[in-house]
Amino acid sequence: MNPQLPSLLEHLEKEQLQSLISPSLLHILAHYAQKYPRYLLKVHKYYDEIYFALSYLVEQFFLKKWNATMVEHLLNWERKYVGWKLQSAGINRNKTYITCNLNNTDKKQKLLTLTLFPYLIRKLDDCIASLSKRLTTPGLSFPKARLYGCIIKLYRKLKSCWNILTWVIRILYMCGKTQYTNVIDLILHQKVIYAQRTDSSNTRNDAPISASTKLRDFILENGFTAFILALRLLNWWNENDYQKYFSVSKTWFTNLGPPRTTMASDYHTGTSCRICGSIIQNPAVLTTGFVFCYPCIQGWVSENQCCPVTRVPLLNPETSFWRLML
User: Fold this and answer.
1) How many CA atoms lie within 13 A of 190 on its CB side?
2) Is residue 216 within 8 Å of 42, Cβ to Cβ?
3) What per-residue string of b and e applies to 143-172 under the rule 16 or more CB within 10 Å gives b?
4) Of 239, 304, 296, nearest to 273 (Cα)?
5) Band of the pLDDT at 109, cuts 50, 70, 90?
6) What is the distance between the alpha carbons of residues 236 and 47, in angstroms, rounded to a whole number?
7) Residue limits of the RING-type domain (predicted)?
8) Closest C-alpha among 95, 68, 90 to residue 79
9) What is the DSSP letter of 182?
10) Which one of 2, 109, 177, 231 is CB 3.0 to 4.6 Å from 172, fit for a cystine?
11) Cα 277 → chain centroid
C-alpha cells in the first residue's frame, strides 16, 4: 500500500461520518418544527432542497480553498487529479501516471457529484417508496401495476449493481491494485491522499484580507469541524444507549418497594454473605456497597446482572465488583 493513501477503514469511517450529517440536521429540524411550526414547517417541507443548496456552498468553499471536502479536510486529507502521459523512447511507448492539484473543472465535477448525486438519490428513493404504496392500493389497473413493478425491480437491481461495483473497487483498493475507493472517483480520476499543508502559505495571495472574510473563513473551518465532532459524540451516545441508562437510573431508588421485614431466620450479620449465608470467604465488594463472597457474587452477576440485595441493574456486570485483598 502507498503510505500517502488512507486505509480502507478510514474511508469507510469518512463515509459513515458523511452520512450522519443530513439525518442529524433533519432530526434537529423536525424537533424544533413541532415547537415552532409557523416558522419551520415550510423549511422542513423543503429540507432536501435547502440542504442541497447549503451543502453546495459549504463544499464549494472547502474544495476551493483546501482541495478537499468538508469531512476530508477534518481528517487532514486532500484530493489529487490522476492523469497519464505517453513517453516515447524510440519504438517503445510507456504510460506514466502523474498527479496534480485539482483545477476548476475538477472541483466543479466533484462538487456536483458530492451534492447533486445524493439529492437525486433521495428523490428517487421517495418516488420508489410512493410507487410501492400505490401497488398496494385497491383498484389499480393491471398495466399500471405491472409498469410500477418493473420500475421498482429495475431501480433495485441498479442499486445492487452499483453497490457490488463499489465493493469490488474497495477490495482492489485494499489490495493495492487501484487508487480509488468508489466509482465516482474512478470516473473523475481523483484520489485522496494525506494532506501536506507545508507549502500552503506560498499559494496565498499577497492582497490584504478583510475582517469579514477572515470571520467567514474561521466560522466555516472551525464551526463545521466542531459540528462534525458533535455528530460523532451524538452517534457514540446513541449507539451505547447511555440516555436510556441514565433515565432508568433516576427511578432505581425512587420506585423501590417497601423494605422487607427482617426475620430471625433470614438475619445476616456483617460477616455473613447475603447469597450463601455463610461467613464471607474471599470478600468482594459490589458497586452498590455490599460485600459478598467472591465466587458467589461472580456467579450471581453472570446470571442475574443486578445487585442481590437492592435488585439495582448493573451497567457493566463483569467489572462491577472488586476483590478485596485483606
Assistant:
1) 24
2) no
3) eeeeebeeebeeeeeeeeeeeeebeebbee
4) 296
5) very high
6) 25
7) 273-311
8) 68
9) S
10) 177
11) 50
Q: How far apart are CA 224 and CA 70, in angstroms?
A: 8
What is the CATH code for 270-326?
3.30.40.10
Residues paired with 323 in a beta bridge: 284
pTM of the entire structure?
0.65
**Considering Cα of 255, then 261, then 264, then 265, what sign does the dihedral take?**
negative
Domain boundaries, the chain: 8-197+211-243, 270-326
Which of helix, strand or coil describes residue 279?
Answer: strand
Residue with cell 491494485: 177
Coil, helix or strand for 97?
Answer: strand
Residue position matching grid coordinates 422542513: 44
Q: Calculate the alpha carbon distances from 315 to 161, 175, 245, 288, 307 in Å.
A: 43, 41, 8, 12, 11
DSSP H helices, the chain, are 8-35, 37-45, 47-66, 70-74, 104-135, 142-174, 183-188, 211-218, 224-240, 242-249, 294-304
The Cα–Cα gap between 326 and 319 comes to 20
319 in helix, strand or coil?
helix
Long-range contacts, 116-120 (Cβ 8 Å, 24+) = 116/52, 117/184, 118/22, 119/48, 119/49, 119/51, 119/52
Q: Write down the residue that cell numbers 461467613 correspond to.
A: 279
CB atoms within 10 A of CB 261: 6
What is the maximum span of the chain, computed from C-alpha positions, in angstroms?
A: 106
* Residues whose CB falls within 8 Å of the CB of residue 318, separated by 6 or more in sequence, listed in order: 301
* Residues present in the chain in total: 326
Mind listing the pLDDT tens digit for each residue in 241-297? 555 555 554 445 455 555 554 444 444 455 788 888 888 888 888 888 888 888 888
Report the C-alpha gap between 83 and 80 in whole angstroms. Answer: 10
Q: How far is the C-alpha of 13 from the C-alpha of 127, rounded, in Å? A: 29
